[in-house]
Amino acid sequence: MIQSAPSTTPDVSTDAFPINGTDYFEMLVGNARQSAHFYQTAMGFQPLAYAGLSTGLKDRESYVLVQDKIRLVLTTPLKPNTDIGKLIDRHGDTVRTVALWVDDARAAFETATERGAEAYFEPREEKDEHGHVIRSAVKSYGHVVHVFVERSAYDGVFLPGFVAWEPEYRPESIGLKFVDHMVANVDEGQMNKWVQWYADVLGFKQLISFDDKDISTKYTALMSKVMSNGNGRIKFPINEPAPGLKKSQIEEYLEFHGGPGIQHIAVATDNIVETVTKLRDRGVEFLRVPATYYDDLLDRVGKIDESVDPLRELGILVDRDDEGYLLQIFTRPIGSRPTVFYEIIQRKGATSFGKGNFKALFEAIEREQELRGTL
């Protein structure tokens, strides 16, 4: 069974809302088949499952891809004027569902709704010859939905209604391991509301916060708070724009996405130099910081295991906290709209999110915004 979380058994004895890990995340896209080809070719995902016309669905089709503990579902409407199509019209390609792996989907739903969550769908049992899955769901910010997935009695390929997807085309993995965190962008003045929602409804705790003094440049600024579940496997930084001289990246996202949503997905690797090299060779484009960033890198972050030269060549950033250091890099937006992108991250003990890189990163984003004419 594949889950987007470390393989060790979590200790949830004192967890206010037990969640084992990320079960899957679903993106609504304009063309799931072509998007699946991109994720296979460029990002090393492997084909897993399919549902669509040949499985009895008449209004949509979904392709499921996997890489180590990451499961990604790509869904496209098959007819005009569907709810899915309307969301794509509004948001472009967007993360709609973040599914959370739980031991009891009924209890999770009851607890969440009793604590104030708005129901998306009530607990339902889905079954086929491989067993049954229980799922339920609640609404979060924007059009994001959290689905609670209980799958202990199921040994099928993904979920009932899906069949194995076994194309001949199978490019090699690039070493992505699991979802490290997912970053939300919400409207100005809404960050604390959703921080409180995750605390009250899902029992999350605040790990860290950043204000406009931490995350700002000459032109733009934002505020951010990081929420985490009890075992630390789910981390949701939540951003809102702060006043600046020009339009911030958060405001740009909110404009082109048509409201709040997931800005980027951070995926972990054990060898970022190797992974990013493969991504670059397969055509994935990354944000770049000035070469001068690396001139005093070791003075700023101390001794690291990696040579600076490949980090400079690839544009990989480094930051250190009290627990160790991390390496990270950010792709350019993966679609036509300047909205969703990916972060590739390798942690060498660090538990933070690269605060020391914020200025260089945001200036790189602003250079992209200037080229787009949206700064």
TrEMBL record:
Q: Does the keyword Lipid biosynthesis apply?
A: no
InterPro entries from the UniProt entry: 4OHPhenylPyrv_dOase, 4OHPhenylPyrv_dOase_C, 4OHPhenylPyrv_dOase_N, Glyas_Bleomycin-R_OHBP_Dase, Glyas_Fos-R_dOase_dom, VOC_core
What cofactors does this protein use?
Answer: Fe cation
Q: Residue ranges of the VOC domain?
A: 21-151, 178-332
On cofactor binding, the record's note says: Binds 1 Fe cation per subunit.
GO MF annotation list = 4-hydroxyphenylpyruvate dioxygenase activity; metal ion binding
Residues the entry annotates as binding Fe cation: H181, H264, E343
Biological processes annotated in GO: L-tyrosine catabolic process
Positions the record marks as coiled coil are none
Stated EC number for the protein is 1.13.11.27
Q: Which UniProt keywords apply?
A: Dioxygenase, Iron, Metal-binding, Oxidoreductase, Pyruvate, Repeat
The family note in this entry says:
Belongs to the 4HPPD family.
**PANTHER family, A to Z:** 4-HYDROXYPHENYLPYRUVATE DIOXYGENASE
Q: What is this protein called?
A: 4-hydroxyphenylpyruvate dioxygenase
